[in-house]
Each structure stands twice: as structure tokens, then as C-alpha cells.
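In this section we walk through a basic example: taking a raw amino acid sequence and producing a predicted 3D structure, encoded as C-alpha cells. The instruction is simple. Fold the sequence below.
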Amino acid sequence: MKTTMKFIAAVALTLTTVVGMAKEPKLNLIVNNETRSLVFELETQSEETKIKFLDDQNNVLYSENVSDEVYSKRFDLKRLENGEYFFTMENALRSIIYTINVKDEESSITESNEVLKPFFRKSDDMLYLNLLNLKKGKVGIKVYDGNHGLVYAQDFMNETIIEKAFNFKSAKADEYTVVVKNSDGTYYENIVVN
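The resulting C-alpha cell sequence is shown next.
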């Protein structure tokens, strides 16, 4: 009986830990027309996030790197001219661009576009790649050596989850670049083999 209780307690602790670690960062962006303001709230797991507020000419009106686990900021929209503005939030896993329309006394978020980035993890001479490809579009992966010579290439089509492990344990000493290209952009990761 004691062994069963210990086992159940261990499983419950493990599940609680896994669920807690898998928590998705929480993000809120709210337009308040009564105060003519924009409120940004972010809860993360201590990953650095960059936020920007831009006008329609791509001039940066505000920029900050956020590393707090809980962050809140209010932006005053009263002095802004009528037009479109953009609020961006970017971290290692994703970037989101919100389009904000300011017109007289009314402001609104008219559009949001989220881009999921590939996640790279290094361990010894191994590089692991994970990418959530919700659009199921073409994803090209290439590996180049330090002389820009192509070492590896593979394309993925119609796959939602792309997982790839690159083994550099028997590779010659060099600096390698992994390039991941999809419809949202091109992403680079370097690994040095000694």
C-alpha cells in the first residue's frame, strides 16, 4: 500500500511539473477608448521579449527589451495622428504584429499576424530543430560548412510538425550554419564543431 501511494505521489508531482513547464506565455493587448490608450500585458517564463510600437512609415515610437516574468505597459494614444500603427512582440519562439487603427476618438486592433519560429537546442555536438508548421507550406532546411559549401539539404511539404536532429559528432572541425526557410522567413543557427 505504501509503495502504491509513493508511486501515485511521484506521478502526480511529475505531471504537475510537466504541466507547469509547458505553460504558454500569456499576452494581452487591449485598446481602451475611454482613456485613448493601449495596454500591453505579458507573462513569460523569463525568456527575453522585444516589443516595439511603430508608425506607418516604420519609425520606431517606442522600443524595449522585456525580461520580467510579468510586465505591463500603457501607451497613450491621445497625441497620435489618425492612421495605422503597428505593435510588435518578438521572442525566440514567435513574433506577433498587431495593426492598430487610430481615428479621432476611436482606436481598434484591426489585424494580428503571428509567425512561429523554429526552435533550436544544442547538446554536445548535436543540434535539434523543432518547427510548428501550421500553414503546412514548404519548409527547406540546408546546412552549410564554414566555406559556404552545402553539406545537407531537405525539403518538407504538407507537414505540421517538423523535427530534425543533426549529428555533428563525426563532422570535421568547422563552423556550420543551419538555414530554415519557409513562407514566413529565413532563420539561421550556427554550431561550432571543435
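Looking at the output, two observations stand out. Helices lie at 2-21. The radius of gyration is 22 Å. In the next section we compare this with other chains.
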